[in-house]
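The material for today's practical consists of a large collection of protein records. There is nothing in a record beyond a sequence line and a structure line. Backbone structure tokens are a discrete shorthand for how the chain folds in space. Nothing more is needed to start thinking about how sequence determines fold. As an example, a complete record with its sequence and its structure tokens follows.
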Amino acid sequence: MRIVSIPLAVLLLAGACTDPPSDGNPDGSADGPVAWCRTEGDVFCLDENVEQRCTFPEGSEFPAILTRECIPLGLTCISFPETLGCALCSPDTLACDGNDIVRCSDDGQEWAYVDTCDVARGDQCVNGRCVNGCENAERLHSNVGCEYWAVDLDNAVTQGLDATMQQYAVVVSNPSPLLATVRVWVNDAPPGEPPQEREVDWIELSTDDLFVFNLDPREVDGTPPGGANSGSHTAWTANAYKITSTAPIIAYQFNPLDNVGVFSNDASLLLPKSGLGSTYTVMAWPQTIANTPENPDTDMRDDLRAFLTIVGTEADTTVAVTLSTDVMPLPDPPDGTGEWLEGERFQFTLGPYEVLNLETGEFNADFTGTLIESDKPVAVYSGSEASDVPCFHDLSTRRCCADHLEDQLIPDSSFGYTYVFARTPARTPEVYAAGGVVSIVEEPEYFRVLAVEDGTEVLTTPVDVAFSYDACNRREVDPTDPISLRAGEYTTREVWQDLVLHSNRPIEVAQFVSSQEVTGIDTEWPGGDPAFILVPPVEQWRSSYVFLTPELYAFDYLIIAAHAGAFLEFDKEPLPRSCQMTELFDEVDTPTTYHIYRCPLSQPEILGPRDVEDGLQNDGVHEIRSIDTTTGRPGLPFGLVVYGFDAYVSYGYPGGLNLIAVPE
């Protein structure tokens, strides 16, 4: 028999202790009888850390209680199935030592080797048993998985500039202990025909490795290969990418990758097939750049359209769409229709790799509130070729400039009831500190709340100064009034601080970073532009994240929302001292305090107008986790957003989230 020693932090030990008897005296004193203490050596667990042992001093009528702490000794107080006191483990418990299964001895003092999981077969040790890594990821329902569907979403072509021809990329990383073989596939068959799959790239990833798949353009707006914005905009193609892996991975798409002379870009956290759903109420942002010669007050002489992109993952998937806005017509639709208007419900059949891309054609046309229902899982994206933030109703109130927006949407079943809205770092002080000639001002940000059920009431805290302006409807609101919404309705609010949102029914919340002109930063300095970020609900927070920050952006940040008292580690070290923490008091229901951290991952140097040196950059793959400092086990869950900006561009996405069905 092989005996192994495992640090306590690696193991999840079953050692729940019962409360002490009410007639006992378990505080260590010996001035009265203790019900559990009947014979020399009897043991009681006050909690998982404190052992109390019974002894009878010579000449005393009463027992004495000897107390010691277990956890500083690398032990825990075990009281089930029998009381052992301070011990390494609970007898007969199975656990993992790397990829080995081990069993706890009868006296709870050592672990014995049982078996090794077959890595070659894709197995890993989880909670003391061998499970297939991909099957386990599918069961856990998070952004970690083994099959993803990515799309080269439509981007801006304007004034001689073409973001669609910049490098589109999918970035993957392996957080699992298994070797992952990752492959990228396309379909060479036309839509409506059986797929003709072709592998276009592959890589083997060891634990914590990262790889960038630089992928060819596969336009979804009907533009033929090699063309530039010459498609029908609304289009049916078979142009999705499928990414498969033999072990759980995380994936992101960047459109385009990095930041080299780019003027229009964003990024999205990709969700695995195991996290997809069949009902989506769409969160989006309106088209703000439109060609409206009939109305000079809004005419930009160009169309940068909002899009809604639906991707099939299985054969013969029936999709029903109830539109919140008119869309551009689909040429040659299979059912003879293709003129789809606001309020209409239409059906469409998709197969794997097939993409139904819907696009707007009007100023302020908005897909928010559109309902998508399918009989099999689909992936859904929304965004804009490029849009301004905030909304405006005529060019005299426009705040320049527009940027590409995109996000993969989470299904309605994963919406939450509580959200912590943590603003992105104010840009003016960051640009000033880097050497830019700017004035430091208060900067607004914008959040949008979307309801999926009638009778939705949303409260915010702090209630006194949370917001006072409905940004897209241009009306003042009383911040102390609840937000009342019906299914499919939404509101957009201008906000100047962090806040917490509570709802009586499931909602989705997104934040939108403003255009550069809102901040007052002149265009000769790197001031960013809009970004679209889905806010992770508190119910979907995780205790650890593996995530990526892209290269070549001057400014990169982590934005963390955590319960007060959570201990966080970044790349196995305490949070950097450069992180700025503010407290957010949640005054609704049970009073709660959150800590909001804004952590810069870069220190650029601005040498002059349009002259920025990278300085110190911490780009690449990172891990952040919460730890229970008493036990070494995973600590309180927290939320994470990754954000960055540079000249004319910004990006932002959640660092990860669970995708479990949230109970009512």
Observations:
- The mean pLDDT is 87.
- The CA atoms of residues 39 and 264 lie 76 Å apart.
